[in-house]
Amino acid sequence: MADPTADFFDGLGHRGPDPMLTKVRGTVRFDLGHRDGTDHWVLVMSEGNVSASRGERPADCVISTDLRFFDRVTTGEANPIAALLRNEITVEGNLLLFHYFQRLLPGPPGARDPREMVRERRHK
């Protein structure tokens, strides 16, 4: 069975440094509840490098939500800011890290990179 959350976090380790995150340092813990308990993931951002691992430890920012809902966030189907406003996600600690975390998420299904659209228009 597919696990979008695990796939998302595992994929972060295969990315190169992100130039948009070069000045960001911090840890974010995700507490993802489900019927059998709570899964914990820790995301470490350090000068453009991002890594994730399973585990429960202190963090600069703690994001809590339902695992099934977070699956939708990691596939671009749900917006974390809108979810925060609806109390589907709670954030404790450094909110700025929550903001930077969003840059790692995929866009909505079917979304296109605006740079690609500009290139296509130039070639017409």
From TrEMBL:
Classification via SUPFAM superfamilies: SCP-like
Domain named SCP2: residues: 18-105
InterPro entries: SCP2_sterol-bd_dom, SCP2_sterol-bd_dom_sf
Stated name of the protein: SCP-2 sterol transfer family protein
